[in-house]
Automatic annotation (TrEMBL):
Residue ranges of coiled coil: none
Provenance organism: Polysphondylium violaceum
Protein name: cellulose 1,4-beta-cellobiosidase (non-reducing end)
An example molecular function term from Gene Ontology annotations: cellulose 1,4-beta-cellobiosidase activity
Sorted UniProt keywords: Carbohydrate metabolism, Cellulose degradation, Glycosidase, Hydrolase, Polysaccharide degradation, Signal
Record-listed E.C. numbers: 3.2.1.91
Entry keyword Hydrolase: yes
């Protein structure tokens, strides 16, 4: 009786304030995962965490269990506009393994690419939780983040990405009372591309102006996007990889409108408050074509450790971010990031000088400095960011910006164009989803702590 009384009160409250509700048809049980915090000297303490899947992947339905969203279109009855949609529709609990191909085992999480159940699911986007209702926040200035990864089955056109974004720890519930689902149900996503394909943003539906995708049966684009700072610790398949900071003028999650969102869905890619390009360090793009890949210095046929260090100018957690340093550990050996061989661009770490030199050498638009550069990225890291673990293919640019020559009409011998050894005809999603349906990525052994504390150094 009390259960139903609570549900009635909740529904009445939601009707009064236009509520984006949690579903009650499938229990939301987060898969568990452990990670570690490390101190100087390498002493690490295990932490118990959970993962949740992004709201965009979830079943969205009304109180009678009918779909609010089918294929790539909204129900005209339940979702005539953004606010009514949030009032009428609920985000349902997820069946992680059977529907989404996501499983955990102690300190590891496996993301399968294609999962066939009642329908076909492609990839996933997951968030690390501190507890059932809050995302785990990471504060990484003067710290390092490390993890093990298996990308052996990720071929051209796939991206196993592990990154940080400036989401609200509660998924936006406190700032947007109409969001009653919260972090538990994977709400509040944002990144530096200001994505407009999200079904719910800032406690509202993204129905107004929604245009179904012409080449993707599951997605579309609405009038709104969701912007925030993004630190790409890891974007990779077995052919190429990049580490990329993306600062924003305002690093916390904020909603944008139509073309002011920038990115691929807008008329001007650079119109938003965020830097969509970032300042990337891709070893192949920086001139070393034999550093990363099958049988290369970092051999992607085997598991390896990825270490990202965030160096500050004064060696404290309150200092200004001055460099982002990458190390790998494989077969007991520590491998430093490859050195740039691009004329005019020296070194092997991301610094403000490196970014300035790279933009000039590649003749790329400098949206990085327009939005505050490395210091602005440091501000976001200082305020805390949420960990995202994902696997996806690319319906806009076929992942060629990561693993091939891009733009495809540019001279591949021109500095910055060649980013990996994949063909410019690779990465077509329909081909990738057919040919590599059994692909997967495994992230494991996540550690965070003082510099040089999360891995063993061998001389």
């Amino acid at each position: 009786m009390y259960k139903y009384l609570f549900l009635t009160i909740l529904l009445l409250t939601c009707n009064l304030v236009n509520c984006q509700k949690p579903g009650a048809l499938n229990p939301e049980v987060h898969p568990s995962i452990t990670w570690q915090e490390c101190q100087e000297g390498g002493k690490c303490t295990s932490k118990n965490g959970e993962i949740t899947i992004d709201a965009n992947w979830r079943w969205v339905h009304n109180d009678q269990g009918s779909n609010c969203y089918t294929g790539n279109t909204w129900s005209a009855k339940d979702c005539p506009d953004d606010k009514t949609c949030a009032e009428n529709c609920a985000l349902e609990g997820a069946q992680y393994s059977s529907v989404y191909g996501v499983t955990t085992n102690k300190d590891a999480v496996r993301l399968n690419f294609v999962t066939q159940s009642q329908g076909k699911n492609i990839g996933s986007r997951l968030f690390l939780m501190e507890n059932e209702t809050n995302y785990q926040m990471f504060y990484l200035l003067n710290q390092e983040f490390s993890f093990d990864v298996d990308v052996s089955s990720l071929d051209c056109g796939l991206n196993g990405a592990l990154y940080l974004v400036s989401m609200d720890s509660d998924g936006g519930m406190a700032r947007f009372p109409t969001n009653q689902a919260g972090a538990k149900f994977g709400t509040g996503y944002c990144d530096a591309q200001c994505p407009r394909d999200l079904k719910f943003i800032s406690g509202e539906g993204n129905v107004d102006g929604w245009v179904p995708s012409s080449n993707n049966p599951n997605t579309g684009v609405g009038n709104h996007g969701s912007c925030c700072a993004e630190m790409d610790l890891w974007e990779a398949n077995n052919m190429a990889t990049a580490v990329t900071p993306h600062p924003c003028d305002t690093h916390k999650q904020s909603m944008c409108d139509t073309d002011a969102c920038g990115g691929s869905a807008s008329s001007n890619r650079y119109a938003s408050i965020c830097d969509p390009d970032g300042c990337d360090y891709n070893p192949y793009r920086m001139g070393n074509t034999t550093f990363f890949g099958p049988g290369s210095t970092v051999d992607t046929k085997s598991v390896f450790t990825v270490v990202t260090q965030f160096i500050t100018d004064d060696g404290t957690t309150s200092g200004t971010l001055s460099a982002i340093r990458r190390l790998y550990v494989q077969n007991g050996q520590v491998i430093s990031q490859s050195e740039s061989t691009v004329p005019g661009v020296s070194g092997n770490e991301i610094s403000q000088h490196f970014c300035d030199s790279q933009k000039e050498a590649f003749n790329d638009p400098d949206s990085f400095n327009k939005h505050g550069g490395l210091a602005a990225m440091g501000d976001a890291l200082k305020d805390g960011m949420v960990l995202v673990l994902s696997l996806w293919d690319d319906y806009f640019a076929e992942m060629l910006w990561l693993d091939s020559s891009y733009p495809t009409n540019a001279d591949a011998s021109k500095p910055g164009v060649a980013r990996g050894g994949c063909s410019t005809t690779s990465g077509v999603p329909t081909d990738v989803e057919s040919k590599y349906a059994n692909a997967y990525v495994i992230y494991s052994n996540i550690k965070v702590g003082a510099l040089n504390s999360t891995f063993t150094q061998h001389k």
